[in-house]
UniProtKB/TrEMBL annotation:
Protein name: GLIPR1 like 1
SMART domains: SCP
Species whose genome carries this gene: Monodelphis domestica
Keyword tRNA-binding: no
Alphabetically ordered keywords of this record: Membrane, Transmembrane, Transmembrane helix
Residue ranges of every copy of the SCP domain listed in the record: 56-202
Keyword match Aminoacyl-tRNA synthetase: no
Entry's transmembrane regions: 260-281
Family: Belongs to the CRISP family.
Length: 290
């Protein structure tokens, strides 16, 4: 016999609560966080600035430079393949975190920006922060080439960023990306340093001619560039940072570490000796000088 459902009931199996409702009841703070993200329009791609040790960031910076150098027009005979340099990246990081859009004032000082190269080159970019900044910035620098006449070594506009990107003698780069709220919402500064530096007065950025015909002895030709395994070795410079960096990073090399350890061991030994002597000679005390 059919029976009517009890009063107040719908006569149906209990329905599971919507996940959103469960989330609302158990974790109300997550709704606040979610609304905050929606309100700001932020996303991981927009707010993430990779460290200078990030492999993907390094690969993107190096690959876009080599790709553009490979396709330089007119064709270049002596362009070297560029690889990453950690000291140049540290210099770029140290300057970018100041969040001022002007060239590094220490660039012209010998060894102020690199422990091996006396001087380095520099390119700057400022704009909206996205995950495509390295490619976008380096391409913008390269596009200045439309104003440059390689035959006459003359420029009809702004060309300095382009000539540094394609400078034949440059074979090391290091870059850094920094979000700078003081310059505007989601505004970032992208800095790349180069060694050996380009833009030497009176010199062309590269020799015009068939690719690799101007490579040095011992180099091999690959993707229209001169490659050399010795030149492309990557050094880490673990104990070097720019002396002008603020706040300054503390460096402690092997000698420094050994000295600190010896001092700590000596201090611990002295304390232990005093403790042992007090146990052996409990009544021992120092007599005042008469």
């Amino acid at each position: 016999m059919f029976q009517s459902p009890p009063e107040g009931s719908q006569g149906l199996e209990p329905q599971p609560k919507e996940p959103a409702m469960i989330l609302d009841q158990r974790f109300p703070w997550m709704w606040v966080l979610g609304l905050g993200l929606l309100a700001t329009g932020a996303s991981p791609e927009q707010i993430y600035t990779p460290p200078v040790t990030d492999p993907n960031f390094i690969e993107e910076c190096v690959s876009i430079h080599n790709e553009l150098r490979e396709h330089v027009s007119p064709e270049g005979a002596d362009l070297k393949y560029v690889t990453w340099d950690t000291a140049l990246a540290k210099t770029a990081r140290a300057w970018s975190k100041r969040c001022i859009f002007r060239h590094n004032s220490y660039i012209g000082k010998k060894h102020a920006c690199h422990p091996y190269f006396k001087n380095v080159g520099e390119n700057l970019w400022m704009g909206d922060l996205t995950k495509y900044v390295p490619k976008m910035a380096v391409t913008a620098w390269y596009n200045e080439g439309k104003h440059f006449d390689i035959g006459n070594n003359a420029c009809s506009g702004v060309c300095g960023h382009f000539t540094q990107v394609v400078w034949a003698e440059t074979y090391k780069i290091g870059c850094a990306l920094r979000l700078c709220p003081n310059l505007g919402k989601d505004i970032a500064i992208f800095v790349c340093n180069y060694a050996p530096p380009g833009n030497l007065v009176g010199r062309k950025p590269y020799t015009q001619g068939n690719s690799c015909t101007g490579c040095a002895k011992g180099d091999i030709c690959e993707n229209r560039q001169c490659r050399n395994s010795t030149r492309e070795e990557i050094s880490s410079y673990p104990y070097w940072n720019p002396s002008w960096e603020f706040p300054r990073r503390i460096n402690c090399n092997l000698f420094c570490q050994t000295y600190v350890i010896i001092r700590l061991v000596g201090l611990a030994g002295s304390v232990l000796c005093v403790f042992v002597l007090q146990i052996i000679y409990p009544g021992m005390h120092l007599e005042p000088n008469l």
